[in-house]
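Students often ask what a holo structure prediction actually looks like on paper. The answer is less mysterious than it sounds. You provide the chain, you provide the ligand, and the output is a string of discrete structure tokens encoding the 3D arrangement of the protein together with 6-O-phosphono-alpha-D-glucopyranose.
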Amino acid sequence: MCGIVGYVGQQNATPFLMDGLKRLEYRGYDSAGVAILDAGRISIRRAVGRLSALEDSLEKAPILGKPGIGHTRWATHGAPTETNAHPHTDDSGKIAVVHNGIIENYQELRAELTAKGHRFTSQTDTEVIPHLIAQELKDGAADFLTALRNALARARGAYAVGAVFADNPDTVYAARHGSPLIIGLGENEFFIASDVPAILNRISKVIYLNDGEVATLTPRGVRVFSLDGTEVQPEIQTVTLSAEAAERAGFETYMLKEIHEQPRVLRHLLEKNETLGDEIGLSADYFRKLNRIMIVACGTAYHAGMYGRLLLEQFTGLAVETDLASEFRYRDPKIDPGTLLIPVSQSGETADTLACIRMAREWGCKALAICNVPGSSVVRESDATIFTEAGPEIGVASTKAYTAQQMAFALLALHIARARDTLDDEEIAECMIDLRKTPDAIHRVISRKESIKAVADKHHDGPSSLYLGRKFNYPTALEGALKNKEISYQHAEGYAAGEMKHGPIALINEYLPVICICTKTRDEVYDKMLSNMKEVEARHGRIIAVATEGDQHVKGIAEDILYVPEIRDEFSPIINVVALQLLAYYAAQARGTDIDKPRNLAKSVTVE
Ligand code: G6P
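The corresponding structure tokens follow.
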């Protein structure tokens, strides 16, 4: 969702702002703009659509000057028009603000300010901020920082804010409450950004602003204050990511690069966490006494949570539930301190997932996050974190973060099983041997991408497709369908294969691709899947199977097969999903969509 950048340094701000905004494009947006200071005045440029529109405009009529702030807007309040695009200003045009989040009491504030003579030009909630600041200055605030602090103290909701003021022409102001914002420390230059990858090529140290903090950035340095004006000593952290991690590295898209990174990501995670120990922040004794686990997440992370539930139930004997964070937060669940909450999030900034952590804390539960972004809100608000360490995921459709979340669940389930003595050492060792096979197995799936592409090319043009799976691979079916709809815009539905007869069977005809995940298992699920496939075949559905290498039964039924290496049932979803990621990828390519930045989607959903 909305992306924020800001630059303070000796150079003209435009190139830095545009470079940062391009690196934030993946978050999802529909308009963009910059505000740049030049000789004591603020120049603003905004444009609807892709960043190239703003870039063209700035090429035709450049704005020279420094410092500056920039923004990519994902419309919430008001359509994606130039007038609604950020930055927004006060009546005098001396204050410009960019904002990510939602000011919930904006209507009330707007009415109050309008009554005082302020004129509003947009439909956004954001526009109240520059007007509030202006009013604070008019009412006698000692300086801009005080006016900003006072204005924000009146705003309800979530925000990350960047601001400039024409009368303080060397300063960029920043503030955060509930929406992500970081400060980058470079060589004689300072940045604000919604995330680290946006400025990774310019900095090696960052300050993660805390909720309720305001900062000033000048060429002389960075100062951080709490909302009451007390100066605080920020913690400066060294960035361990390499700049290349956020580049495409020769791949045609970030998504394809990230699919290819999966073997490396999983190998790394395995090496690092092979024996998850007390360092995850919760003791073996805590896990022994636990009586329930509640997993909450959104989107792809929710599917990882569904898979995690099956593993945890099987290995630990605990009662485990998974829910969508957006549903869980409005339920009335019977949770007590004996419940562990596991929030799963790639970005660590998803608003609904964060809300669940806050609820769980009120009930006295601990939260153990599975998260990809150090310093993110989910990490900071949880008691402990298993980092997925997949590196920046730029493609909007999640791939490597998903398999890393699956791996994190596998390692956690084995860790808890050890603590609770529900698996013996030998069983755990055998599981570890099989888990260690997953990176090579994924590599093998990827090496067959040309044959997966051929299947996608054959089936991509229908209006719809159905994905079926059972038990461990029911979440795989949901995730495969999600990947397909996210990037190819083909309607796709994931279903538990056993539910097919209760509805989706009515959809089956000679045109419908039915993707059946039917890898070999030790239990009866495989035979049941074969029966379901027979039922599809009898109705002339077009079966694409994900099957184990050498499987003869599936061969006799399916029209096309995506082969995957054999592995223990419990870990097959980690491999099977990669075949479906590639199937969706090549379908999207054949349909000519914008794979890394699919329409309407945001990578990080920071509002409810
Ligand atoms: C958005 C993204 C998805 C992601 C979901 C949850 O919808 O497009 O890829 O799975 O948010 O995000 P999180 O960062 O919490 O995993």
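The longest strand covers residues 95-103.
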